[in-house]
Amino acid sequence: MEIWVDADACPNAVKEILFRASERLGVQVTLVANGPVSTPPSPLVRAVRVGAGFDVADNEILKRLNPGDLVITADIPLAAGVIDGGGQALNPRGERYTKDNIRERLTMRDFMDTLRGSGINTGGPPAFGPRDRQAFANALDAFLAKTKTRPA
Predict the structure, then answer these.
(1) DSSP string of 66-81?
(2) Cα 117 from Cα 49, distance rounded (Å)
(3) Model confidence, pTM
(4) Is the CB of residue 89 less than 8 Å from the CB of residue 82?
(5) What is the pLDDT of residues 40-95, one digit of tens each?
(6) What is the pLDDT of residues 63-72, one digit of tens each?
(7) Which of these, 113, 88, 112, lies nearest to 100 by C-alpha position?
(8) CA distance 56 to 114
(9) For position 31, what pLDDT does the model report?
(10) What number of CA atoms fall less than 13 Å from residue 71's CA on the CB side?
């Protein structure tokens, strides 16, 4: 199992949690982004820089994804692709995307996109805070415990 991170908009606090989990459990973490990303000096953590453009990082993650891999993303269409490809998806606020909830999330995302396209200000998500950080850490720990990830 590998952990893939849609790193362009991923909060630094989430990346730090992932780096620690990688070292503790011996799991490969790969950050995929359009720009430079800082990583700790670890053979288990790497960054892949892709070209600029719409969904370039998302497509790279989907291309490299193996069944059972975990993808960290707030991008709902990417999460849907991950699930369709046999992977698991978790957002930076600790919500796990599943076959049972992803279609509903896609429908809501498309509805909100339509509202924004018609000029309605729908606002955005609240600022990422300590509760979100803790929720992510708890969800990641639960996922890793469930998959029985052990050091190599």
Answers:
(1) -TT-EEE-S-HHHHHH
(2) 30
(3) 0.89
(4) yes
(5) 999 999 999 999 998 999 999 999 999 999 999 999 999 999 999 999 999 999 99
(6) 999 999 999 9
(7) 88
(8) 23
(9) 98
(10) 32
* 96 contacts 90 by C-beta, under 8 angstroms: yes
- For 38, the token pair is 């800082």
Half-sphere exposure for 27 (CA within 13 Å, toward CB): 28
pLDDT tens-digit profile of 126-152?
Answer: 899 999 999 999 999 999 998 865 444
Amino acid at 138: N
Distance between CA atoms of residues 150 and 152, nearest Å? 6
Q: For residue 69, report the phi and psi dihedrals to the nearest 5 degrees.
A: -65, 155
Angstrom CA distances, 27 to 18, 105, 127, 144, stand at 9, 29, 29, 10
DSSP string covering the chain, please?
Answer: -EEEEETTS--HHHHHHHHHHHHHHT-EEEEEESS-----S-TTEEEEE--SSTTHHHHHHHHH--TT-EEE-S-HHHHHHHHHTT-EEE-TTSPEE-TTTHHHHHHHHHHHHHHHHTT-----PPPP-HHHHHHHHHHHHHHHHHTT----
Give the closest residue to 27 by CA, choosing from 140, 111, 129, 125.
140
Nearest to 69 by CA among 151, 152, 145, 143: 143
